[in-house]
Amino acid sequence: MADQTSNARRLFFYIGSLVSLGFIVGSGIYLLSYVVKVTVFQKADISYRGTPPAIFFNPTRDGGDIPDTIVSCTPTCSLTDSQRTSISDWQDNYRIWQQQPTSSTNRARGLVNALSFLIVALPVFWFLFRAAQRDAKQDIAENSDPKRSGRTVRSLYFYFIALAAVIMFMIFTGVTVNTVLKTWVVKSASDTQTNVFSAPVKFPGVTGTTDTTAITSLQQCADPCKLTVDQKAQLTQWQADYAQAKTEMDQQPKYEWQRTLATSIPFLLASIPLFLLHWLTIQRERARTTRSSQ
User: Fold this and answer.
1) d(CA 252, CA 115)
2) Which H or E run contains 180?
3) Assuming Cys at both sites, which of 41, 166, 211, 274 could form a disulfide with 258, CB separation 3.0 to 4.6 Å?
4) Domain range enclosing 10
């Protein structure tokens, strides 16, 4: 009964240490990635907002030379009540888009999350692992025979983490080497495809695309169509937001290598001390046990 209680105690300490260590390593890797992105790979962040929403009008005519995405104000404003409703809907959608977090906001949120988990996990790991260490020393002092002292759980803990670190090292070293080769050595293997999601459609004889023609035509017809001051301001701000978002999206494939390295290098750096600490510890204890049993 005492042995079962001791084994349950060891399992609790080592499983708790393993879980809290996982949070520490994960938070540390994110913090390393954050530092790398801020200092070295400053183009590594990706924007998930996309371009701001465009205006889509309901079809009002069959055929014709002017697409329904264009508002005409010659000689009079062509906006219908249905299209004015579409403009109001677009205003709501645009406000929602503006409230979405930017890449810098997501980075800051990730930093806060990583620090929060690190602050919580560090004392938990310190308490549990210290208790496991104290229990192991007491176990060795009471019974020097490794086959009877119940040190299997401890060995499994250290070897498991060492193995996980080796796997992490191999995977992310391979990813790093792959990225370096594709970016600077075998450039033909690099993926240089531009962003093709929601590709805007061009109309024959019309300057711009479906993303911009309605906005541009509305700006040109703002006064004849009696748009409000708020609507005019949103149209102007939309143009600036669209240009910035389009530039960010066009640059994303160009800096894909920075995003990959900003992820793989922190994993690689974290795996080395993680392996050495646990591998060397268990090897020292194994050598000590071997000497004491001779």
Assistant:
1) 28
2) helix 152-180
3) 41
4) 2-293
